[in-house]
Design brief:
It is a single chain. This protein is of the alpha/beta class and about 200 residues long. The protein folds into 2 domains: about 110 residues, Nucleotide-binding domain of ferredoxin-NADP reductase (FNR) module (Rossmann fold); about 60 residues, no CATH class. About 25% of the residues lie in helices and about 30% in strands. It has a 5-stranded parallel sheet with strand order 3-2-1-4-5, with helices on both faces. A 5-stranded mixed sheet has the order 7-6-11-10-9, with helices on one face. Strands 8-12 form a two-stranded antiparallel ribbon. The longest helix has 14 residues. The N and C termini lie close together (about 10 Å). The model has no long low-confidence stretch (mean pLDDT about 95). It holds the Pfam family DmmA-like_N. InterPro entries: DmmA-like_C, DmmA-like_N. Keywords: 2Fe-2S, Flavoprotein, Iron, Iron-sulfur, Metal-binding, Oxidoreductase.
């Protein structure tokens, strides 16, 4: 479901190294780490030496698998973090001290990409300058347009809002400011008439 005629739906061009950047900051998860490794292979050693990777460790089954991935990303400096929130916080701390010419990258699930772009924007980074590649799960972060509550890791539609309990049809309409897709009441026209739930974003 990465192709849509909805204009707000993000399109990801893929990771490409900026060989002229003064430094590079990458946020990725387990699936996205493969894209980062591919990017590092296409670049030179100087690029990797200027690159810091914030790796979300929550999807790794064993500590050995995490260590193997860190080794695979060398010579880039890879910092494992327990989850997406920690990785995005680390990105913010790094951007607070960043100098002109720093490039931001994001690779992995859509919530990871959206959260990375959202945090970078708080530091004045234009969303079009963040290089992104989707890998792995199609799960979404969904905002209920009625109560404004957020529901994470959504793979089905309709889905029950975790805040107000309404059943929501998940749209392709996306808010970059919120880093979330929009969910609208599934039975707005005929109360109680809920379409069959389908797995659409696995």
């Amino acid at each position: 479901m990465l192709i849509s005629d909805i204009k707000s739906r993000p399109v990801y061009a893929g990771l490409e190294p900026d060989l002229f950047a003064s430094s590079n900051i990458v946020v990725c998860d387990r699936a996205g780490a493969a894209a980062v490794a591919d990017m590092l292979r296409t670049a030179n050693g100087d690029f990797a030496a200027k690159t810091t990777v914030f790796l979300c460790a929550e999807d790794f089954v064993t500590p050995q698998a995490l260590e193997a991935q860190i080794e695979n990303l060398k010579p880039a400096a890879t910092i494992p973090l327990p989850n997406l929130n920690a990785a995005v916080a680390a990105l913010g701390e790094r951007l607070f001290r960043a100098k002109m010419g720093t490039r931001v990258y994001a690779a992995g699930s859509e919530p990871l990409i959206g959260s990375t772009v959202q945090r970078a924007a708080r530091f004045g980074v234009d969303h079009r300058s963040v290089r992104c590649e989707h890998r792995g799960s199609l799960k979404r972060r969904v905002q209920c347009v009625h109560c404004k509550g957020m529901t994470d890791d959504v793979t089905v539609s309709p889905v029950r809002c975790s805040n107000c309990g309404l059943m929501l049809t998940v749209r392709d309409h996306y808010s970059r400011r919120l880093a979330a897709f929009q969910g609208v009441r599934a039975d707005a026209e005929v109360p109680g008439e809920i379409p069959e739930q389908q797995v659409l974003f696995q």
